[in-house]
C-alpha cells in the first residue's frame, strides 16, 4: 500500500475547520470525574461520534464511570491495535485564572484553550480523526482496532484494572497505543515506553479535641504540626534520599539501552527552567532525565494545620494533615511501599494515622522490540523527524493494566505541546499539534498494516519487559 505523505498532510490541513469543530463539540461537554458532572452525557456523545465513523461502539458499565468501548474487526487473524484514552477531565478551578471560559473552546495565538483540550480530549479525537483519514483514503483498515476510552483517569483509574481483568478476551491485542501527556520541551516528537507508578497517602496527627490558646496551654499540649514535622524528617533526608527501610528494594537497574536513550534526549536547562517556572534550575541533562524518569520520588503535595489566614491567630492546632505522593519505578510495588511506610510510622510515632488514598503500578516495554521500531519509523515519517525515545514518562498513567494484566506491549505517543498546562487554568493544545496527531495516527495504522504482512507468522513470539 503506497502512501503519498504530502497528500495526507494537505488533506488533514484542508479539513482543519471541520476537524476543529468536531473536537469543540466534545470539549463543550463537561466531564469532570471528580465531581461526577457530565460524565454519562460525554460518554454518550463520544459513543455517537465513534458510531458515525463506522466503529461498533457500546458503553460498558463499571463500578464507577462507564468505559466507551469500540472495535473495527477486519479479520480475527489480523494484527490488533488497542487504542486507550480518557474522556474525563480535571475540575477547572480556580475559575478566576481562566482568560476565557473553561468549557468554551477559544482560539488564541494558534492554540485551542479549553479544559480537556490537551488532556485528553484533543489527543483522543486526533486518534479517531486519524482513523477517519485512513478510511477516507483507503476505504478499509489493514488491521483490527479496539478502543478503550475510560471516564476515571483523572481520579486514578480506580476501576480500570478490574475492567481489563474481566474483559481479557474482549481486549486481547498485539499492541496498546496511547496518545496522552506532553511532547518534549524541545518540540521534537516523543515516544514513551513506560510510566512511573504512584502511591498516594495521608498522615494525620491529632492533639487536643479542639484548638487551644497557645499561651494558656503552651508547653502543656502537644502540637500535631510539630509531630508531623518530626516524623517527616525521619522519612527523607535533606538530599532527597528516602529513609524508609526497604523503599529502594526491587528497583530494577537501568539497562544500557535505556541509558543510551536518555543521553540522546536534548537538554536546555534555561529553557526548561523558564517553562516550568523555576529559573534557578541547576542540573545536567543526564541527571535531569534520570531523576525525572528512572528514580522514585517522595513528595509533599499538601500540608494543613492551624490558622494560615491574614494576620495571626495564636493557637495550638488540634490536628495536622499532610498528603504525600510517591512516584515509583519498575519494579516497585505500591502496596509493598505502603506497608513499609505504615511500619515506619508505627516505629517512630504510632499515634499518627496513616490513610491510603490510591496507587498505580509502574510499567515498562522494551525498546528492543520490533514493534517499537515499526512505530518509531511511522512517527519519523509523520513528522519528517526522528522521534526521541524516552524509557519512561515522568508522570503516571494506568499503563500496567496493558503490560501486566493484558500482557501486551504498550507505547505512549504524546500529541499535546509541552506547555499545554494540563490540570491548570488555561489548558490548551496547539492547533498544529492537534492536526499532526491526526496525521501521526494515520501513519501508525499504515505502518502496522505493513508490519502485519511481514510478521504474521512470528508476531506472537515476541517478548517484552
Descriptive report:
The protein is an alpha+beta fold and 465 residues long. The protein folds into two domains: 5-195 and 362-461, Zn peptidases (Aminopeptidase); 198-251 and 296-360, Alpha-Beta Plaits (2-Layer Sandwich), CATH 3.30.70. Helix content is 35%, strand content 19%. The chain contains 14 helices and 19 strands. The strands form six sheets. A six-stranded mixed sheet has the order 1-2-6-3-7-18, with helices on one face. A four-stranded antiparallel sheet has the order 12-14-10-15. Strand 4 and strand 5 (111-113) form a beta hairpin. Helix 2 (16-28) packs across helix 4 (121-138). The longest helix has 25 residues, at 431-455. The two termini are 32 Å apart. The relative contact order is 0.19. Mean pLDDT is 94; it is low at 459-465.
Summarize the topology.
Elements lengths: L4 H10 L1 H13 L10 H14 L3 E5 L6 E6 L7 E7 L19 E3 L2 E3 L7 H18 L5 E7 L9 H7 L1 H4 L3 E4 L11 E3 L1 E2 L1 E10 L5 E2 L10 H12 L20 H9 L4 H7 L9 H9 L5 E7 L9 E2 L2 E10 L5 H15 L4 E8 L2 E2 L5 H14 L4 E3 L9 H6 L4 E3 L15 E3 H25 L10
Parallel strand pairs: 3-6, 3-7, 7-18, 8-17
Antiparallel strand pairs: 1-2, 2-6, 4-5, 5-19, 9-16, 10-14, 10-15, 11-13, 12-14
Helix pairs in contact: 1-14, 2-4, 4-14, 12-14
